[in-house]
Design brief:
The chain is mainly alpha-helical and 328 residues long. The chain has one domain. It has 13 helices and 2 strands; from the N terminus they run H-H-E-E-H-H-H-H-H-H-H-H-H-H-H. It has a two-stranded antiparallel ribbon. Helix 2 runs parallel beside helix 7.
Length: 328
Amino acid sequence: MKEFLKIIRWQNLLIVILTMVLMRYAIIEPVIGKMSVVLRNGTGEIIPMTLRFPWYDFVLLVAATVFITAGGYVINDYFDIQTDLINKGRAIVGTKIPRRMAMMWHNIFNLAGVAAGFYISWRSGYFMLGALFLVVSGLLYFYSASYKRQFLIGNLLVAALTAMVPLLVAFYEWPALYRYYEVNAVSLPDINIIFYWVGGFALFAFLTTMAREIIKDIEDFEGDVAHGRNTLPIVMGVLPAKIISICLVSITIVLLYLTWYFYINDKITLTYLSVAIILPLVFVIYRLIFASNKKELHLAGRIMKVVMITGILYSVVVKAILTLNLLG
């Protein structure tokens, strides 16, 4: 059981769950709660908008995402046995867990994830949206089998799929909101705003994941060279790879402050961003500049992961600000 939990990266799966739950209940719910409508068959009273995507369908959406993600982690370990032995000194698949069993779990997770994805898409009235889960499961397979060995393609794919996790919540909530309030409300407010909020988190996830993936490639340079991979550090060199990572982190910092200045501009957000996100990112830049061994690079990668979590947890701050009317 311990080895099984390791290959599915249970900590990362918890982060996926946390991200989706917070996007729904800490971002979308309070944001639309600030919008008021008058129902056609009501008393004429102005009431706040509420979530319309059923909670049990949302649970299935989270489950589908988790299943597909777990399947991706399993197949990644399946194809990475030799490189893991060099880079990490150990490999679970092929030693603790037989390759055939790993492939079986990969197929089970993907089947369950795709089936759940098509089901909730059918329930939502957009059956073909379920094809997204099928495409993602295929991309994760080809990422492990081929794309991660190619220059930048693997990094961009992982970053894009990570950014898709928060967006999935908006993709399924928006149609439910539109269908209900278009029919039942006298006028429909601009609910596209939920994409601006969730999209901000998605962009943050993309940039930080991209930077972290490049840092991991630098850390795994030795094993990747031995197996003929064409990662960014191998093709361009370790120093250019570090410079690109530093640029991505710097862009993230600049965008965070610009977003705060032009769109939010409150002291609570400024304090949280500066202490919980910006400061660790600055340390990552410092670590990348002076890192001289795998241990120091590994620390930079771990800090990036912590920053990704604190970035997600900013949604709790958003909920508090909107619920308690602290903005301004």
